[in-house]
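TLDc domain-containing protein structure dump, as promised
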Amino acid sequence: MGYTRSYIYSCKLCFVEEDSGPDIYDLLLACDELMLHELAIHIQEHLIRQNVDWVNENLVTILRSTWLIPTCNMIRQFCVEKICDDPWLLFASDKFYQVEDEILVAILQREDLSLPEMYIWNNVIKWATSQLNVELDSNVSKWELKDFALLEEKMHKCLPHIRLNNIDMEEYYHNVRPFKKIFSEQMQERIEEFYFTGRKLDISYNPRLPFIIDSCLIKYEHAALFAHWINRGEGKVSTREKNPFNFRLLIRGSDNGFCGEVYDRIRFEYPALLVLILTDSGEMIGGYQRINSYYWKMFGYDYDRESFLFRINRADFKRSVISRVVRPTHAVYNQQGWGPCFGEGDLWLKRHFRVSEECVCRKASYEFQIVRDESFTVKEYEIFEVTPA
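structure tokens r here:
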């Protein structure tokens, strides 16, 4: 739709809550074409304040279309900060692989990007290979030098902004080392010297802000909230630098798979587990369990009066809610080949986490139901071992 200067000016004082995000956004782009800079600022303020849900849903599209428009700096900055605060909005978007180099570099440069560096590396690799005009073999060991050259050319702008010193030796060996030929020989030597001798990497960028929890779903504020809940609200709420618990990642769905067999291999090894689930409907839910290893049962229910379920409010984590166990004799359910199960169906992940009939949530042994529907599918999940710091 084309807009005239007089029409756009007539809209300036007529924005109401019924105005749709897409229509107002079209006006914003038209303002740039007609050099109506003051009105562009007014429209951006309106989008951020009155249509924030629409902006969040279309964040990647907005970021791409406004990236080179000077008058759209306000909404562009809002999108970047939103991504750093909730990286899932970008990295889990089906539009992530279409993002231009300049945008991705700007995100990677940020110190407040709340993601584990290993997750960043893996996703930048996927982004780069998806943008190549050739299809590379999924087995990197079969690549030729020209394949690494193609990948290096695509990742050239991104590589300096990945904090390799935030990736531990084991992760480096399994995930970075297979791609070492995209680095210069000098850089390869410096990286190996760092991992084998501990000599500091000579890097020009600042480290990212400290991490409490190695998660692509939540950030340090949520880790502090979990600690507060585990301690039943006693003591001070922890800070970014200090948390009374360590959260060690054991399983991530996108890395390890979405079936119960993955969980089945570890469920008896760790007495205290935190389970995080992002549903396909966008809800963030999960549970905490602390079972004495002497009482673990291969099948059936386990007693635990410390277990709880939760639902995270992604817009305002302070409005997140907890549902404690009210029937501790049925706090946790065990079934061979199944995923984590809380209560008598209060939160069950059975054999296949992306089949709605296999993921159940209905009130029985906990205070209340934590999702709207009694069945759901899993978009991503993470399981952590929880130990005192």
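The chain has a mean pLDDT of 82.
lmk if u need the other ones
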